[in-house]
Amino acid sequence: MNLELIKKIPLTDIENIFTAKALNENKCLFLCDDKERKYKLLYTTLDESVLIDLPYNEKSYSVESNPVLFSVNHHFGIVKSVEELLLFNDQSTAPQTVDIQNRQILPSRLRLLYQSPVNDGDILPICFEKDVFMGQARDIAFLQIDTENLIACWQSQTSIDSSSLIHHNYPDLYHRRKQTSDFLHKRQTFNFFRSRLRDFNFRFGIN
Length: 207
Known about the structure:
By secondary structure, this protein is an alpha+beta fold. Helix content is 19%, strand content 41%. It is built from 2 helices and 12 strands, in the order H-E-E-E-E-E-E-E-E-E-E-E-E-H. The protein has helices at 3-7, 170-203; strands at residues 16-24, 27-33, 39-45, 49-53, 68-72, 75-81, 84-89, 92-101, 110-112, 123-130, 139-146, 151-159. The strands form 2 sheets. Strands 5-6-7-8-12-11-10-9 form an 8-stranded mixed sheet, with no helix packed on it. A 4-stranded antiparallel sheet has the order 1-2-3-4, with no helix packed on it. The model has no long low-confidence stretch (mean pLDDT 79).
């Protein structure tokens, strides 16, 4: 990403930047929000910066699914939900709405995450979490987009087995932290009573 593109970000018009996507060396997209916490899409080139309104009723602090920024086949867009995406091209800032088919292969309760998919074709790996929402992407769904015929379809999904990630075993890490916390609490309690006992012995001349 060209550093000059970052310098063109209109800081007075936006509040937060959630994710970015480089279209090429001289074009970049930023998913952001404004002072009212409404989602915006910032399209930046070396010559201009355009802030695009997005048709979202939800505020950016909503706990519902996060919009997912993507680029595919000289188009870019936002996965708005598991059932709908917004598709743009370089010639227009007005998006086309595309319904996403095959939603039934995904879990009934899930939350899309901000991470922009990395792809070199028309299939996008979309990160999501299911059941418990903690901001940890342990699941991926594969979304195929036909930009010519305006068709989008979920192809499959997979989960990352946490037991195979030995350096990210969060339940085990939580258990170790709790053990450490309990030990420190017990040591602090012991030191407190030992100090009080020393004061008592000194006051009454007990050796």
